[in-house]
UniProtKB/TrEMBL annotation, chain B:
Gene3D superfamilies, per database record: MetI-like
Start and end residues of each ABC transmembrane type-1 domain: 74-265
Matches recorded under Pfam families: BPD_transp_1
Protein name: Carbohydrate ABC transporter membrane protein 2 (CUT1 family)
Transmembrane segment boundaries: 12-34, 78-99, 111-130, 142-165, 186-208, 246-265
GO cellular component, one term: plasma membrane
Species of origin: Ruegeria conchae
Family statement: Belongs to the binding-protein-dependent transport system permease family.
Amino acid sequence: MQTRRIRWHIAVFLAPAVLVYTAVMIFPLFNTLRLALFTEVDQTRIYVGLQNFRTLFFDPIWSEQFWNALGNNFWFFLIHMLVQNPIGIALAALLSHPRLRFAALYRSAIFIPTILSFVIVGFAWKLILSPLWGIAPSMLDAVGLKSLFAPWLGKEEYALTTLALVSVWQFVGIPMMLIYAALLSIPEEILEAGEIDGITGASAFWKIKLPLIIPSIGIISILTFVGNFNAFDLIYVSQGALAGPDFSTDILGTFMYRTFFGFQLQLGDPHMGSAIAGAMFAIILVGVCIYLFGIQTRMRRYQL
Amino acid sequence: MNKARQNPLNTAAMHGALILYTLIALFPVFVIIINSFKTRRSIFREPLALPDAESFSLIGYQTVMKQGDFFLYFQNSLIVTVVSLAFVLLFGAMAAFALSEYKFKGNTLMGLYLALGIMIPIRIGTVAILEMMVATGLVNTLWALILVYTAQGLPLAVFILSEFMRQVSDDLKNAGRVDGLSEYTIFFRLVLPLVRPAMATVAVFNMIPIWNDLWFPLILAPAEETKTLTLGSQVFIGQFVTDWNAVLSALSMAILPVLVLYVIFSRQLIRGITSGAVK
């Protein structure tokens, strides 16, 4: 097999993918990080080192927005972890029950929101929660909770949480499917062995199944983290680029869009936008590294 | 097998919980669609009622057809999605074949390099991507979107497809080599047909994010003639916020193609997710 001549077909097979991937993904990624070190004065690009990052983190005008967006983004992520993943796990546990009828039907129906675009989801919920239309208040009225209603998307203290919950509603299908697959792969013998020892029902879930699906929960957590820290669409669709009311729903994605593209009176600044992208890159990288080196390697994988 | 796992009360409770959540998942979609067929007055008076002879109206759809160029948007979305998917599958499969079939220097390194993009979102590089597209004159063309989505889809495609290609029997390929087939013929005629299920999985995985993306159409191709359906409906709804009939109809029209695709491909999608996670 081993020949001295160059095997051109390997290069031919690799070239298109490597070229497109390098030119459109990797190169722009590093170019963006490079652009973050420049600024524009009188239409010429000048090198300023880490000045943009200093502005972003410490200049009162910028840093207030940046820390606000970062804090909101962490809250957004926390809601997903606390609401989306437990609900997803619970649904998967129910669906994976042996001899449950209509399981495929439930599974397909619950997954529908996940395939809809943010535009549809954002506007649909905006309409439903709107006090003008009155679906939400009249439904709360039907169960006697009308006093709980508030224009949630319009109030600073509720808007971000409401949007996070809408996003949870949309994406709960993903943890559900992944956990469902993990639960199905648990061999029957293990569960039967547990039954012989008297572990059935709920305690079988907590003591046998849950420890076995922890690696999948880890994967879901990192997917949620990466997804949340470059989220943009839902906030943009329902609250606009200004992420109102009063920036209370601003996250890093909308902040970056506003900064680099410009909005209304604010002029676009690609260099500050790159600096924000750099910060997002660092956050995602730290998250992925914590997962890969801190969590995944320490997780015990059971040989099934 | 065991009585403890089959208790009628438990079963009822499980169905109750699942039905409740299914209702939560479908309710907003249902409300939007039924109200898109109603007159403005009945939208507000009885939002939860089904349209009947008195309240039925297509006024919203008429506005959408007259004011928005939804067929063009739909066509753009379709072109972008189909062409990007074709590139992702072809280039991804070729690279996956090179990585899984041949031993060469830097093979592992190349695999790692291509896998980088699985975890790092392409959006981070948006500023430089826009600059590049402006410099090459691709801004406001569908090619800009196609290139970006191809690059975005390749890492996962290469990863999944090379896992599958390792399982293709060596005997088959070597038999082909003995018969004098070229490496290209072996790839296209012997290997590709065998990994078709994996290709379908990759296609379905990529289809939804490409179709639904708002970020890149907004930044790279916001011109009227290159708007995708997602961007087009976002802009349309933004302009017609006060015309509830039009907004509801536009939303329903955006939901419809995705739902149709989902009904066609849901088995493939679910099988893909479940088999991918088990590894």
